Amino acid sequence: MDAIRSPLSQSSSVSLHRSVPEEEEEEGGASKVEVRFVTSGSEEELGAGPSSELTALLLRYRHGYKRAGVLLSVCGVIVFIIAFLLAYAVFSGRNHCSQVEGQGEEDTRGGGGAKTPADGGAGLYLGELRVMMRKLLQDEDIHNTVSRFSRASHPPGSSEGTSLASEILRRFRELQMDHTWAESLYATLQFPDRSQRSSLWLVDSAGVVSEQILLNPSDYCPYSATGSTTGGVVYANYGRPEDFHWLKSAGVSVKGCVVVMRVGGGVSFAEKVWLAEKNGAGGVLIYPDPADLPQDPRRLGLNAHTAVSEHVHLGSGDPFTPGFPSFNHTQFPPIQSSGLPLIPALPISATVAAKLLSQLSGPSCPLSWQGRLPYVRCVIGPEFSSGRKVRMSVHNVMTPVLLNNIFSSLEGRVEPDQYIIVGAQRDSLGPGAVKSGVGTAILLELARTFSVMVKNGFSPRRSLLFVSWDAGDFGNVGATEWLEGYLSMLHLKAVAYFSLDQAIMGDDVLTAFSSPLLVDLLDAAIRQVEHPKHAGQTIYSQAEREGGSWRIKKPLYLNSGAYSFTAFAGVPAMELRFTEERAYPFVNTPLDSASRLQEVLGGRLGVTGRSLGELVGEMVLRLAHDHILPLRITSYAQTVLQFSAQLNKHSAELQSRGLSPQWVFSARGDYSRAADTLQRAIDYSDVHDPTTARFYNTRIMKVEYYFLSQYVSAVETPFRHVIHGRGNHTLSALTEHLALLTSDPGRFDERLFRRQLALFTWTLQGAANALNGDVWSIHNTHTYTH
């Protein structure tokens, strides 16, 4: 398959479009399941008693027909026996059917393994399913797959990338799941220009080049603006909002300058460049500082000449089709994402950064900004002591590339149109052991495990969908374009999404980036899964010993593989990650290999991958097994309550400006009551009734979707979620604006705040109304005035 093809080509992915091999279709497609019925010991005892009594009675009264008096007695006994047997048959039949159909299932909220039949589990219990899953997950398979898929760079559209896609498709087909297929699309990606390299020079006051600084031609920031800029250099630490605020307070302007920033600080490359551009910078250089790396980076193979490459599109998906899919049949309108930067950006090594920063003059930087660059005194700039300036030039080209997302699914028995999705990106600009290899390995291992479980008798209520995404290194393009293609239906189909991207970066701390709706699932899972470094201890029990350091809950972030699912599509999503206390230094570098990852983990790559896979598998198992989806539908009430408390502190000030916070308080109360009412209704309902379960599950699945603001455009503001999204409609924007009443009252914009408050309030009120159900059940006591 060619690396680049015309969007008009219709035969480019024939080999990847066949959903099921012909031999599978001839055999009927789906695998056969051997069903076994389980009878409890008490039933066996009951079954033995009546039949033996019946035999004894028949033998005893075999000759009694000669006596007329005995005849009447025999008739009475026979009638009694028949009545008893009929009653037994009815009771036994009901009890047996209840086991097969899932009646009497354990209370799954407790997360225990009580021996109660799994619904549709063909005689298997939830505890048995857990044991089966643990036995099937293989450490060695995960390790071998990471090594196999991390030997060389495999960017989208390359021969290596296409070969890897074909291999994953083949592996999925070998599992003989119910459906396996590929979906192709064209997206516009950016690559370095092979005919003209990006470059960096030092120029004198007359603009004459005095020195060229050598760069690695493969180091680049996808979606950087192209062109050249010349100016002074300003050091801006991590490039966080507070860093730029400090520069402004110190009287240092970055306007027209090249801003040098460190990798990390909780800020993505895209956010760093966006903030620099917003403050007037002419260009951006980003480097990894030794202070942010492990104490002995040489032992891990990191050197001062290594740069980190990361995309700088402040968004996800194809930036030239924002809000809608880039499938082959799509007509591309002449628009582009507002998240594309207008200034050039380049990744540089610590060596290059030291060369630039060591020549700066100007005020000293704060003590907390000091890194560990050799021979560098921490100075802000922007002037060079020699009077020179920096000229940077970026030469990248936009290219349409054929992408392939690979899918495989197991159909649910009861609610097959509800999907539990597990996915991982497949591509990488480098070897990508952490970036794509680990996620792909765990994805394949989970797919294999659940497919074998189905063959061994597991019958999931809901469908399982395993996906290998393309172009993840360019802003989760493959996943986002798929979401855009099915946006109108996903809130009715997708139960939850679990991202496996960058899942293993260590084995000390477990970090969860998650929608609040999934937190209860995680809390139950960590009580079941063994810690990768402490045999015999669960992650939870180990946490108890270490004061809870096992887990850090964080909100979903823009570059997360799970972010678009929640912020754009309204699907509860989670990304789990095992890390070290110090950041794994090789992500997005040519050094991200399986051997280095093994060294960081002390040889425990397979074991750690298995633990992470078991964590995700445990949550998937619960979602596929339980009658009612175990999502915490009341979680957002607490989030809004915290904001209401902040709002209440400024109540007098707001009212003096003609702004009443009462609307938010009322909407929050309505939502909290609606969520509590729905939860109580579920608690006191017969959830084993299929119609009742379906009714409640449909409402539960929509909760996340209700928080997508209907008052902003999906094209202009794609991340519409008012809690996790980006834009003036979000709770974070409202909170930041509210803080100006204290920090900078002159910048408080009453008109803008009124609009923000209205957008958030009516989204929240709409969510409350939707949770209430029927319109006649909504008791809205607001008085509307014009």
Structure overview:
By secondary structure, the protein is an alpha/beta fold. The protein is 39% helix and 14% strand. The protein has four domains: 41-101; 134-191 and 399-623, 3-Layer(aba) Sandwich (Aminopeptidase); 197-394, Glucose Oxidase, domain 1 (3-Layer(bba) Sandwich), CATH 3.50.30; 635-777, Transcription Elongation Factor S-II, Chain A. Strands 1, 10, 11, 12, 13, 14, 15, 16 and 17 form a nine-stranded mixed β-sheet that branches. Helix 9 links the parallel strand 6 (258-262) and strand 7. The longest helix is centred in the first third of the chain and has 34 residues, at 68-101. It starts with 13 loop residues before the first helix and ends in a 14-residue tail after the last helix. Residues 1-75, 87-122 and 781-786 have low confidence and may be disordered. One of its GO terms (biological process) is endocytic iron import into cell. Its main location: membrane.
